[in-house]
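#help-structures

NK: newbie question. if I give both the sequence and a SMILES, will the prediction place the ligand too? trying with zinc ion
OV: yes, paste both and it writes out the complex. here, I ran yours:
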Amino acid sequence: MNTITAYKCKQCGLVMYPHHFRCLKCHAREFEEITPSEKGKLLTYTIVEQLPWGIDERGRVLGVVEFDNGVKALGVLHVENPKMGMKLKAGWDCVRVIGGEEVYGLTFQAA
Ligand SMILES: [Zn+2]
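OV: that's the protein plus ligand as structure tokens.
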């Protein structure tokens, strides 16, 4: 499993995952790297019925997970019956295919 790295803006403290060239909030360019622990809990989730092109699924569950160190990240849930507060472990998988290329992203499974 790849290590997950999140980026914390040195100016305003916004934690971003994945990396952006500039902070989404204050446009600063300096970040501190944070490694979220691999386990977290589900804060909220949503089922997306209308998916962008390149995602070959009928409906997809997106969840916001809070890692043990407080970093929050959005990822794809591979869980049959998601419940708020449930424990999840993070992974890194292909989540989308664009122009024949696999795009990897954060995924979560029941811990
Ligand atoms: Zn910032």
